[in-house]
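Changelog excerpt

This revision adds worked examples to the README so contributors can see how folded entries look when concatenated. The first example is reproduced verbatim below.
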Amino acid sequence: MLEALFVNKLAEKVLLYLYVYKSGYIREIAYCFLEPVNGVQRQLKRFERGSVLVSTLRGKVRIFEFNPGYPFLPELKALLDKAYKSLPEKDIERYFMKRTKPRRSGKPL
């Protein structure tokens, strides 16, 4: 939907992911969309170079989130909000519902 503005569909997915979950790391985002890790890494680094995102190291993992000092952040978030709300319900369920692992009952199968 926004790939015309963000160059490609993966860039849109990365930004929507960070809009919904507030932060994320490369493998987590790649796994969510079943995209290659190197493509997601390229998009995150591109947004970081443009000051849209900032990253911090937590242990050995680099966490990305929106840069609160980015001058167009409110406008960008408003655009992402509109894009998110216009997604088909099946895409929202597929990509943006919090995943939890099933609990183990402790009983052998």
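The second example, added in the same revision:
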Amino acid sequence: MTFVVTENCIKCKYTDCVEVCPVDCFHEGPNFLVIDPDECIDCTLCEPECPAEAILSEDDLSDEQEPYIALNEELSREWPVITEQKDAPDDAEEWDGKTDKLQYLER
């Protein structure tokens, strides 16, 4: 089991989660974060830190969210590790809770 960053992080990209991660498993893209499943130790510390509630246990994903397992794995191989909290995008609150955001994912 691992934790997975899901759709609601797209264009919100709050980074509160990276500060609490003891193993630096978060990777940062232009408008999304992902978790490296090989590095995640399932400590559960990141999940409650996410203001957008975009981090879920792999076991708690809905059928629609399951593709994010592979997406996190793929993008964690390409994107750099992030270990320090950054300011959220100026329009993060406007994007929080919107659906169908995968089309806006920047690679």
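Reviewer comment on example two: The radius of gyration is 12 Å. The longest helix spans residues 67-78.
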